[in-house]
Specification:
single chain, about 375 residues, alpha/beta, Rossmann fold, 18 helices, about 10% strand, elongated, binds adenosine-5'-diphosphate, binds magnesium ion
Length: about 375
C-alpha cells in the first residue's frame, strides 16, 4: 500500500500538533505546514511559541500578538496561497492566556478580580503557565472553537521533555487543587486552605514571611478560596482539552532532527502517543544532510583531483576531505531516517534538508513547505 505524503494526510485535520524535542525545527515546521495547508484552500491559524524574531517578522507578528493576525494576502500570493486559503499566526503569551482563562471561567466579575488581584496570582500562574505547556493547550482550546479557522497548527514548547506537553490537561486540574503547593507544604489534600490558615506556617513559609513581611499563608489561603468558584470550569476545561488531543481530527506530527539524542526522544514520544491514544500521523526529520544523486557518485579523491589545478594541492585536498565528511554525514543521516521511519511506523517520513541559511523569511519557509508537500 502506498503511503501519501505528510501534507495529504493532514487534509481533513482540525488540529495539527507539531511535537518533538527542542531545537529541531518545530516552530519552522509548524509555520511551513501552516503555509502548506493554506495553499490547499484552508483557513489556518498557526500558534507559534518563541519564534525566532525574524520568522515572527516574516509572518507579520511585529506586535507580539497573542491573538492571531492574518499574514497579508499579497505576501502569500507569490507562494501560491490564494483564497479561500488564509494563513493566520500568533505568538503564545502564557500570562495573557492564563489571565484570559481565569476571566472566562470566573462565574462573575467579583470572583475574577479576587483571583487576578491576589498578590500570589502572578507567581502561581507564572509557575503553572510559565512552562508554556499548560497555556499552549488552553490556547488550542480557544482557537479550535474560533469560526475564523478551519485548522489550527500548534507549535509546542521547547520543553526539556517533549512529553510534558501531553500531560498539560492534567496540570489544569493539578493547578486548581494546588497539588504542587500541597506537596511543597506537606499538607494533606482536603481543606487545604483552611488547614493552612489554622496550622500556621511550615518552616520555609515562616522564614519567608519574616523576611518579606508578606503574610504568605494568609494570601495562599485566600487565593485558593478565591479559586473555588472556578473548580467546575477548570475540570470541564481539562476534560475538553483531553478530548481535543484524542479527537480523530487531531493529528500529531513528530518533528526531530537526525542527531542521536533528538532521534531517541522522538521514538520515545511516539510510543507515549500510542499509550495515550493520541493519533500519530507522520514524522518530519528536519536538518538532514543530503547529497544530490550526481554528487553521491564522486568521492573526495576525485573532487581533489578536479580542483588541484585551480586551488593548489593543499586546498584541493582540504575540499576533498570536507566533501567526504559531508557524504559520510549524509549516509549516516539516511540510515537514521530509515531506522526512525521503521521505529515510529511512518514509511514515508518527510525529510527536510538542511537549508543554506536560517529559515526566517517567507520564501525560505516556502522552500520547506515544498519539501513537506512533496513528501
Ligand atoms: N531545515 C533547516 N535548515 C536550516 N536551518 C533550519 C532548518 N530548520 C530550522 N532551522 C533553523 O534552526 C533554528 C531553530 O529552529 P526552530 O524552528 O526555532 O526550532 P524549535 O522550534 O524546534 O526550537 C532556527 O534558527 C531556524 O531558522
Ligand atoms: Mg520553537
Amino acid at each position: 500500500m502506498s503511503v501519501r505524503p505528510l501534507v495529504d494526510r493532514l487534509d481533513d485535520a482540525r488540529v495539527v500538533v507539531c511535537a518533538g524535542p527542542g531545537g529541531v525545527g518545530k516552530t519552522t515546521t509548524a509555520a511551513a505546514l501552516g503555509l502548506a495547508l493554506a495553499g490547499r484552500g484552508r483557513r489556518v491559524a498557526v500558534v507559534t511559541i518563541d519564534p525566532a524574531r525574524r520568522l515572527a517578522d516574516a509572518l507579520g507578528l511585529g506586535s507580539l500578538s497573542n491573538d492571531p493576525e492574518r499574514v497579508p494576502a499579497d505576501r502569500l500570493t507569490a507562494l501560491g496561497v490564494t483564497p479561500p486559503g488564509e494563513l493566520w499566526a500568533c505568538m503564545l503569551d502564557p500570562q495573557r492566556t492564563f489571565d484570559g482563562l481565569i476571566a472566562e471561567l470566573s462565574p462573575d466579575a467579583a470572583t475574577r478580580e479576587r483571583v487576578l488581584e491576589n498578590p500570589l496570582y502572578r507567581q502561581i500562574s507564572g509557575a503553572a503557565g510559565g512552562s508554556h505547556e499548560f497555556t499552549a493547550v488552553a490556547r488550542l482550546h480557544d482557537l479550535v472553537a474560533d469560526p475564523r479557522f478551519d485548522v489550527v497548527v500548534l507549535d509546542t514548547p521547547p520543553s526539556r521533555n517533549a512529553l510534558d506537553f501531553l500531560d498539560a490537561p492534567d496540570r489544569i486540574a493539578g493547578f486548581l487543587e494546588g497539588r504542587a503547593m500541597q506537596a511543597l507544604l506537606g499538607q494533606g489534600r482536603t481543606g487545604f486552605a483552611a488547614r493552612l490558615a489554622r496550622r500556621g506556617t511550615g518552616l520555609a513559609l515562616g522564614a519567608l514571611q519574616r523576611l518579606t513581611g508578606v503574610d504568605v499563608v494568609r494570601d495562599l489561603a485566600t487565593f485558593f478560596e478565591a479559586l473555588g468558584p472556578l473548580t467546575d470550569g477548570f475540570a470541564q476545561r481539562a476534560v475538553a482539552v483531553r478530548a481535543i488531543l484524542r479527537d480523530p481530527g487531531t493529528r500529531f506530527v513528530v518533528v526531530t532532527s537526525p542527531a542521536p539524542i533528538p532521534a531517541a526522544e522522538a521514538r520515545f514520544f511516539r510510543a507515549h502517543l500510542q499509550q495515550n491514544d493520541m493519533p500519530f500521523t507522520g514524522l518530519v526529520v528536519n536538518r538532514v544532510e543530503v547529497v544530490a544523486p550526481d554528487d553521491a557518485a564522486r568521492d573526495g579523491a576525485r573532487v581533489t583531483a578536479e580542483l588541484t589545478d585551480v586551488l593548489g594541492a593543499a586546498l584541493a585536498g582540504k575540499v576533498g576531505r570536507t566533501w567526504d565528511e559531508h557524504r559520510e554525514r549524509a549516509a549516516r543521516d539516511a540510515e537514521t531516517v530509515a531506522e526512525l521511519a521503521t521505529a515510529v511506523g511512518d514509511p514515508r517520513p518527510a525529510v527536510v534538508p538542511t537549508q543554506g541559511g536560517e529559515v526566517f523569511d517567507l520564501p525560505a519557509l516556502g522552500a520547506i513547505r515544498d519539501v513537506l508537500v512533496a513528501g
